[in-house]
Amino acid sequence: MKLEGFFSKVSISCRIYDKFCLVDFEYPVSIPSKSHTAVAALLTRINFDIRIGKFILTMSTGELFYRAAILCPGIVPAYDSIKLTFEYSSSCMNHFGDDIARVAIGSSIPASAPLSGVPANAASVPTAKSAE
Fold it and tell me: Is residue 4 situated within a structural domain?
């Protein structure tokens, strides 16, 4: 199953602290409550190998976020840093969105199965392994 479509709006918030800033990308996706537990389990698998940021599912509302931190001690992050973080977030959604949608509509992915976003030659996929 390949889901086609696009996001017409992604809400981005940036909170700046002393030594880092958090950038949240809120996708216009609402996970059905009956699928929260299964999607949360899948996000745990996905987040394990992501090297920058993580997916977050708000269990009370079903909202799906991608959160990344940018280290920027005492300064506002540069536009290029925020742009790169956004591109990485989009890449992660592109890679794993089908699996998230598949589980959200009630299908299952066996724990031993590779996620569809991870090809056999995972050199270009955003994972901890490719960062080494």
Answer: no
- Kindly tell me if the per-residue pLDDT of 114 is higher than 70: no
State how far the alpha carbon of 46 is from the alpha carbons of 42, 43, 120, in Å.
6, 5, 16
**Does residue 34 fall inside a structural domain?**
yes
How does pLDDT run across 17-68, given as a tens digit for each residue?
A: 877 778 788 777 788 899 999 999 999 989 988 878 899 999 999 988 888 8
Residue 107 lies in a domain: yes
Evaluate the CA torsion angle 69, 66, 131, 37 in order and state its sign. Answer: positive
Phi, psi of 129 (to 5 degrees): -65, -40
Q: Tell me whether residue 5 is in a domain.
A: no
CATH number of the domain within which 25 lies: 3.30.1460
